[in-house]
Structure formats: structure tokens, C-alpha cells
Amino acid sequence: IVAKAYRSESALVNFSNGIAIAKEIGNEKLVYDAYQKNVMIASTNGMNEIALLYSIRAYQFIRDNNLQAVGRTLSAIGYNLSALGHMEESGEFYERAIKVFYQLQLPEDIAEVCYNYSMTKMAQQQYAIAEEQLQIAIKIIDKLHLNSLRVANLAKLYGMQALLSTLQGNHLDAERYLLSCHQFLSSILDKQ
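Predicted structure:
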């Protein structure tokens, strides 16, 4: 993974030059921000090796007093490991991120990590764990009315729960989750 990331990174001459200048002048915040912002650009363009490398590099520039950045970077590392097929390793980073966010009492961040962790477990066909993680995300979003697009809306989560229930042969729960999905979408449409 690392070798491929280094080869890909060498093509990003301007970015690498900018990082070198920021390091030379000692502006660690600029270095961190540059890596962090380019993580998303790299991952949305299918360059998960680069995104993983940049997440690790961003982690190296986080100051101890910014635990939220630590948690988000751990989550990004987990996400990119998962995207690269390293499911077991990704789980370790997701769990560490959840602990950081729990300590900071950041429920929306916990819900986002649980959602991503759930998708990883679903890919591993560990449906019970996937369902548990998704249920945590649903409870956080529902109880705290955090139905933001950053995490995922409740209709999508209920749909995922229905899929997980179906994959586990639990058709009664699948129908229940689909009904919840329908009710949520109906309530949104009624408001418009």
C-alpha cells in the first residue's frame, strides 16, 4: 500500500512542494490542514492509498490538545483501510476513534464512525456486529435529532437495517425496518 501511495504522491508535485515549504517555515497547522483536506479529495477520486498515507501524515501533526482531530483522523484511517480491503485493521482504528469521541462526548462523530464500522462489518459478512453498530448510529441520530447528511439520514439507516435483517434471514425485522424507513420519509414529505 505504502509503495503505491508514494508512487502516486510523486505525481502531485505542487502539493508536495507546498508541504515542503510549510514544513520549512515551521507551520505545522498548515501541514496538518493540507493533508487533512486532501484526504477527502484523494478518497473521492479512488486514490485510497494516498488518502491513507495523508491520514497517517496528518495524524503526525496533530497536537495533543486537539483530541477531536485525533478521533477524526483515526476514523479516516479506518475508512481508508476498509476501502483498501484491510477490514480487520480498520476495525481497530474505528474502535479507537469511538473511544476518543466518547471521551469528548461527541455523539455525531460517534454515529458517523459506527455507520462506517457497520459498513465494514457488513462487507465482512459479520451481520450481527454490523447491525449493532448501525443501531447505535440510529439511536444517536434519533434521540438527539441529528439527522444530518454528514452521518446519513435515518431513512438510509433503516434501509440498511432492513438489508442486514434480510441477510440474516430475519424477514419480520426487515419489514419493521422498512416500515420505519417509509414512515420517516413520509414525515419528511408531509413537512414539505
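Summary: The longest helix spans residues 171-191.
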